[in-house]
Amino acid sequence: MDLVRQSRNARRRAARLTGSTGAEADRITKRVDRSEREHAHTAAYYEIFAQALR
User: Fold this and answer.
1) Contact, 3 vs 39, CB < 8 A?
2) Domain count of the chain?
3) What are the phi and psi torsion angles at 13 (to 5°)?
4) Of 32, 35, 40, 45, which sits 20 to 30 A from 14 (CA to CA)?
5) CB distance 35 to 6 below 8 Å
C-alpha cells in the first residue's frame, strides 16, 4: 500500500523511455501502464485496505 513507491516506479520507468526503441520501448511502456494502474487501484481503495490492516 505504498502510493509513493508506485508513483516513483511509474516516473522512473517513464524516464527510461527516452532513447528506447522497439521491443524495449514497448516493454517499458507496459510497465509504466501497469504501475499507473496499480497506483490508481490502490488510491481508489486505500481506505478499505487501511481498515483491513487495523
Assistant:
1) yes
2) 1
3) -70, -40
4) 45
5) yes
- Assess contact for 6 and 42: CB atoms under 8 A: yes
**The whole model's pTM is what?**
0.74
pLDDT score, position 1: 57
Q: How far apart, in whole angstroms, are the C-alpha atoms of residue 11 and residue 46? A: 21
CA 10 distance to own-chain centroid? 4
Residue pLDDT, tens place only, 7-39? 888 888 889 888 889 999 999 999 999 989 999
CB atoms within 10 A of CB 27: 13
Which residues form the domain of 27?
Answer: 3-53
